[in-house]
Design brief:
The complex is a heterodimer of chains A (285) and B (817). With 285 residues, chain A is mainly alpha-helical. Chain A has 2 domains: 167 residues, no CATH class; 107 residues. Helices cover 76% and strands 0% of the residues of chain A. Chain A contains 11 helices and no strands. By secondary structure, chain B is of the alpha+beta class. Helix content of chain B is 29%, strand content 24%. In chain B, the strands form 12 sheets. In chain B, strands 1, 2, 5, 6, 7, 8 and 19 form a 7-stranded mixed β-sheet that branches. In chain B, a hairpin with a 2-residue loop joins strand 37 and strand 38. In chain B, helix 1 packs parallel to helix 7, helix 9 crosses helix 10 and helix 12 packs across helix 13. Chain B is globular, with a radius of gyration of 30 Å. The chains are: A mainly alpha (285), B alpha+beta (817). At the A-B interface, helix 4, helix 5, helix 6 and helix 10 of A face helix 19, strand 37, helix 23 and strand 43 of B. The complex binds flavin-adenine dinucleotide, protoporphyrin IX containing FE (HEM) and iron/sulfur cluster (SF4) (3 copies). The site of protoporphyrin IX containing FE has 24 residues of chain A, from helix 2, helix 3, helix 4, helix 5 and helix 11.
């Protein structure tokens, strides 16, 4: 029973949405704005003050407002035929078209002023967006391969489980050993600040230290302690591998978010600068 | 000499209790016999604090004990009190083991050897049955229990759980869930593996074993139990384990055997069958009555009404109209002519062939679920490709089937007394033709669940429906070239069988020529390339396989095996060889229609030497998806992990579109070659979840969505029946502030499913005694734009697919590779 098509969407990446519809629109916008700029606008100078300049400026400002609206669209689950994939596709390509629209709007008149600040902020948003696209295209495959069949919650459950096994395995051993294991159980940190997350490792990981320690101890162990130490080490090695997997997972997630820490605040700065830019143009010129 | 009661009522569930209360009210001498030490053992065993519901709403309660929706505790308390004040004569701790004698002089023997005499006996023992008990030496020791109410109640014990079904596994996992309790848990299973349990449970069990949380011993049987120890026989000898407590979960014996031993006939050998009853609930044994869940009425209100009614019937009030009479009358009141409900029921029963074997009580029951339609000549009943799984019966008039979608004037008639719509019912797939009324008609439309129940419990109905389905399928395969008469012998010879998943119907290279019609389930077609089977296509129910051999040189060119458990009709090839040789024009026509399948085979054949890895991957992926339930899905959510950025916007959208609870768990589930099947409903073609829902709250919507309506009573049966673990039992969370206040002022928890912490905090300030209900994906039924999860995915990773589109290697793929 094929279900009604309304539930289904083509299976394609957002970049290829509807056979590159918005990429085509992007090309069109670039060509149109370049044509306008080259053909129609000579006097007194090419800048925002001419009619072409105004037109490009208005298009650019509207585009920015619309691009900002994505933050809302993403979370506003209203009824209707919209697809966020389509919106993202349009966002990316129309966002990029601003490079043409806005640059030509400036007529290349840059200076140390508010207007250029707005322009620079916009370029900042766009460049951070390009990083985002890069991560969106490259990372999902790696993240999926790393995760396998485990969900994040399942990985964390598994850590707790291994901790329990560690506790049992440490029981027959001396106190100095037990305190090392305790360190692994109580002091292993996952996550942390954004840079720590992005690095994907933790140099001071107590589990890692404990593993190295026990590997060394095992080499020196006598017949009696060899067995229990081996048991303990095998659990530790499992935990260590799992922690590495989790840190990689956290790293991918952080990278997929990281660029937004620039993209979004810069967007708000841009909106403020853009408002100031428009007001100053209308009132002081 | 002990006294002979007028009525002995066995079982103090809602049915038995209500009967006893009414007998007490009318001053009839009675006794209520209950095997537990309290009333209503089934309800007593509900989870603590469970909200019990009083559905169906439109049905009035006719009983001398009160019942309205409320908590389990409140209801039991009220019943205890009212049983007391009504002076019901109850004997507790008395399990009836045997009923002998005849009307006027029945004799009941209880487990403790007591004898009770009664003129009439009412059985209200429900369907829960008795847990199988331990029969070995020491099997009666007090540390053996058959139920586990609170797994966290034990500390530092050696606990043995016996039985590898879902109940045993869930108990064992529950007991070792909290390591701080330091229990040492061992699960014993008689078989080498766990065929009866859900695969998710088995996985969890094996994981717990690997992690050393518990022990699992398979191929183990208990030889004896003593204080502190259990002795078991294992594969290679015997063993003796320390044991403080035994939890035996070895399944329960359904009460059918006991009831049959009393001489009562059942309608069929089917597991779902009920006793044959007269309209006054009397069984084939005069004076012996059956009411409640055992009679096929699984809701408390029904049970209680029947308790009242049966006492009225026994005391001679045979004209009493059942409490559902007004509901039935409402169904018939738009029909022409002034007839009573029983006249209409009799009219339908005698007119429609498949209903002729039904008792008046069965007629009543399925009519309660059915609708009656009056159609004028020319009116459409349903259209081709509509989704619908109800069965229509023609009580008066006849209809036309428009067999050719391109030529509306081409029709085949279906006459009075016949049925139609059975294909959707059997295969769970779309309507395959438009049907219009050919004259003024009276039609009875029976929804899928009621119709399937009828088919599985009344053998005569099943036989009639199967025969009709076979005939129509064959007519469809061979187009209009043949008549029913031509097919008669082929159909008489046809055999229906069930094929287990993975079993081959047709093996490549064999020289049989039988044709198989797939009634339910689905098949995969494979071809051996080298010694590797290569996946060719997926064939859903409602189609047929095996016809190629009739036209080729008689050798099977590919293998066909069941993707999931399927039901097929085998039609002997010899009949067709004869038909086709007599009818060369027909042969040519069919050969044309097979061109595509042949092209596919030829293509694969031609690629033998360098069959591309693309096809290999496709096959491996298809097999993976079938394992994940896509073989029986109609629409499933998949996530392409090469695109998924893990933003969880899909879950957020689902929660936003559905009262704050996400019906999908993206991360959970399995992955193969970057294709992820999340935990989310597959909208199965024959939804397992529907099979045992007391209020019949699970339906298939016109667009194919399987959904749960608000009559859900929260019993959790569907959650247990769904093999894919997609149903949750949840309370509707409190309302959140809107999106704008969150964006601008940070008010509320933000979009998506609110955290448990927020919900808890919010609930502390407001009352919420809403019951827990079953929650699952409804494919965004009724939401414009369709599936919110798919619409809200920013990258295109989340897609909904139907298996036949997705699994079969399409023409384009063939051309591309
Ligand atoms: C988890 C769960 C939740 C449910 N929730 C609801 C709900 O919210 N609303 C609703 O309407 N329905 C609900 N149901 C269905 C409802 O509980 C049953 O259909 C109903 O209890 C059946 O009533 P009954 O009287 O026929 O049998 P039961 O209630 O099963 O009672 C049978 C009684 O007979 C006794 N008995 C059995 N054999 C013998 C014997 N040989 N001798 C003596 N005594 C015997 C048993 O101990 C028991 O007390 C639920 C069912 C379950 C399992
Ligand atoms: C001036 C131009 C732009 C503005 C004002 C802007 C603004 C925004 C905003 C407000 C969001 C929502 C973030 C959130 O709430 O999660 C967003 C998301 C995003 N932007 Fe931009 N953006 C701009 C240009 C670009 C460009 C040029 C690209 C790509 C090259 C880009 C790529 C993205 C992507 C990939 C997302 C995330 C979509 C998602 O995950 O839902 N943006 N942008
Ligand atoms: S809930 Fe489970 S059984 Fe029911 S349709 Fe969905 S996947 Fe199938
Ligand atoms: S289709 Fe709708 S209900 Fe189903 S998982 Fe997606 S959003 Fe949720
Ligand atoms: S919305 Fe799409 S990209 Fe985001 S988690 Fe869901 S499937 Fe992945």
């Amino acid at each position: 029973m094929a279900i009604p098509k309304k539930h289904q969407d083509e299976h394609s990446s957002f970049l290829a949405y509807k056979n590159y519809r918005y990429f085509k629109l992007f090309l069109l916008l670039c060509i149109v704005s370049t044509t306008l700029y080259v053909w129609f606008d000579f006097t007194p100078a090419r800048n925002g003050g001419t009619w072409v300049g105004y037109t490009l400026g208005i298009i650019g400002a509207l585009l920015i407002l619309w691009l900002t609206f994505l933050g809302m669209r993403k979370r506003w689950i209203s009824q209707g035929r919209w697809s966020l994939k389509g919106w993202t596709s349009a966002h990316v390509y129309l966002g990029l078209s601003l490079i043409f629209v806005a640059t030509l709007h400036t007529g290349f008149q840059f200076g140390w002023n508010l207007h250029t600040l707005a322009y620079a902020l916009m370029m900042g948003v766009i460049i951070s967006g390009l990083f985002g696209i890069y991560f969106y295209v490259v990372l999902p495959r790696q993240m999926s391969a790393n995760r396998g069949e485990m969900s994040q919650a399942a990985m964390l459950d598994e850590v707790a489980n291994l901790d329990r096994m560690l506790r049992d395995a440490a029981q027959p051993l001396d106190d100095i050993y037990i305190s090392k294991v305790q360190n692994s159980i109580n002091k292993t940190k996952l996550g942390g600040g954004i840079f720590k997350r992005i690095s994907g490792r933790n140099r001071k990981c107590t589990t890692h230290a404990a593993t190295r320690f026990f590997r060394e101890e095992l080499r020196r162990a006598d017949n009696i302690t060899h067995g229990p130490l081996l048991d303990l080490l095998s659990v530790l090695e499992r935990k260590n591998a799992l922690l590495r997997q989790i840190r990689r997972h956290i790293r991918f997630r952080a990278l997929l978010e990281f660029w937004l820490y620039f993209h979004i605040p810069l967007t708000f700065a841009l909106l403020a600068a853009l408002t100031a830019h428009i007001i100053s143009v209308f009132f002081y010129s | 000499m002990s006294k002979t009661y007028d009525i002995a009522i066995i079982g103090s569930g809602p049915a038995g209790l209500s009967a006893a209360a009414h007998a007490a009210k009318r001053g009839i001498s009675h006794v209520l016999i209950e095997k537990a030490e309290h009333l209503s053992d089934t309800i007593y065993k509900y989870q603590k604090g469970k909200h019990v519901m009083a559905t169906p709403d439109q049905l009035v309660l006719r009983a001398d004990v009160d019942f309205e929706a409320g908590t389990r505790e409140d209801i039991l308390q009220i019943w205890d009190k009212q049983a007391d004040t009504a002076k019901i004569n109850i004997i507790y701790n008395a399990e009836v083991m045997e009923i002998s004698g005849t009307k006027g002089g029945f004799s009941l023997k209880t487990k403790s050897g007591k004898n009770i005499k009664a003129a009439n006996v009412v059985l209200g023992i429900g369907t829960q049955g008795n847990p199988n008990t331990m029969r070995c030496e020491g099997g009666d020791l007090s540390h053996i229990q058959y139920q586990l109410d609170d797994p966290s109640a034990y500390f530092d014990e050696d606990i043995i759980v016996i039985g590898g079904g879902d109940a045993g596994i869930e108990n064992a996992l529950g007991l070792c869930a909290d390591p701080d309790l330091e229990n040492r848990v061992t699960l014993l299973q008689r078989a080498p593996d766990f065929p009866k349990a859900k695969s998710a449970n088995v996985k969890a069990l094996l994981a717990a074993k690997n992690d050393g949380k518990m022990d699992v011993i398979t191929q183990a049987t208990t030889s004896s139990v003593e204080e502190g120890f259990i002795n078991i026989d294992v594969k290679d000898g015997t063993d003796r384990l320390p044991c403080d407590r035994i939890i035996a979960r070895m399944g329960s014996a359904p009460p059918r055997k006991f009831v049959e031993n009393c001489g009562v006939e059942f309608s069929s050998p089917d597991r779902l069958a009920y006793p044959v009853l007269s309209p006054s609930f009397e069984t084939s044994v005069p004076g012996l009555f059956v009411i409640g869940a055992l009679a096929g009425y699984p809701l408390i209100k029904h049970c209680m009404n029947q308790g009242y009614d049966v006492v009225e019937f026994i005391s001679g009030n045979v004209d009493l109209k059942p409490a559902d009479e007004p509901l039935l009358a409402a169904k018939f009141n738009k029909l022409p002519g002034q007839h009573s409900v029983s006249e209409w029921l009799e009219f339908i029963r005698t007119k429609v062939e498949i209903f002729q074997a039904l008792t008046p009580l069965q007629m009543r029951e399925f009519m309660l679920d059915s609708k009656v339609h009056i159609k004028k000549s020319g009116q459409t009943i349903f259209k081709r490709n509509d989704i619908g799984a109800s069965l229509f019966s023609i009580a008066r008039g006849h209809v036309n089937v428009h067999i050719n979608p391109d030529d509306f004037s081409k029709t085949v008639p279906i006459g009075e007394g016949e049925i139609f719509g059975e294909t959707g019912l059997i295969s769970g797939r779309k309507r395959n033709a438009t049907i219009t009324a050919a004259a003024g008609s009276i039609l009875v439309e029976t929804p899928r669940n009621a119709a399937r129940k009828l088919i599985s419990t009344v053998p005569a109905v099943k036989k009639a429906v199967d025969r009709i389905a076979t005939e129509r399928q064959l007519l469809q395969i061979f187009g209009s070239g043949l008549t029913r008469e031509d097919l008669r012998t082929a159909i008489d010879d046809a055999e229906i069988s069930t094929v287990k998943a993975g079993i081959a119907l047709i093996t490549e290279g064999d020289d049989d020529t039988d044709i198989y019609i797939i009634q339910s389930g689905s098949m995969v077609v494979e071809k051996l390339i080298g010694d590797k089977p290569v996946f060719l296509s997926y064939v859903p129910a409602g189609n047929y396989v095996g016809e190629m051999a009739l036209f080729e040189d008689g050798r099977r060119t590919a293998s066909v095996k069941a993707a999931v458990k399927s039901e097929v009709i085998k039609v002997k090839g010899a009949h067709f060889e004869k038909l086709l040789s007599e009818n060369p024009a027909l042969k040519d026509k069919i050969q044309d229609e097979l061109a595509d399948r042949r092209a596919m085979n030829a293509y694969v054949e031609g690629q033998k030497s360098n069959f591309s890895s693309v096809a290999d991957l496709h096959g491996a992926r298809a097999n993976f998806l079938i394992e994940q339930g896509l073989g029986e899905a109609t629409d499933a959510l998949l996530i392409d992990e090469t695109l998924c950025i893990g933003c969880n916007n899909c879950e957020l959208a689902c929660a936003e579109a559905h009262e704050g609870i996400s019906r999908l768990d993206r991360e959970a589930g399995t992955t193969f070659a970057h294709l992820h099947v999340p935990t989310s409903c597959r909208h199965c073609e024959h939804p397992h979840c529907m099979s045992d829902c007391p209020p019949n709250a699970i339906h298939r919507a016109p667009d194919g969505e399987v959904f749960i309506d608000d009559t859900c009573i929260g019993c959790g049966n569907c959650q247990r029946s769904c093999p894919y673990g997609v149903i949750q039992m949840q309370k509707t969370p409190p309302r959140k502030p809107g999106l704008l206040p969150w964006i601008f002022f940070g008010i509320g928890p933000g979009p998506g499913q609110a955290s448990e912490k927020w919900v808890k905090k919010k609930l502390a300030t407001q009352k919420n005694d809403a019951p827990k209900k079953a929650v699952k994906c409804d494919m965004c039924k009724g939401i414009k734009g369709g599936a919110a999860c798919v619409r809200a995915c920013p990258t295109g990773a989340a897609i909904r697919v139907s298996p036949e589109d997705y699994l079969s290697m399409s023409k384009q793929q063939r051309e591309a590779s």
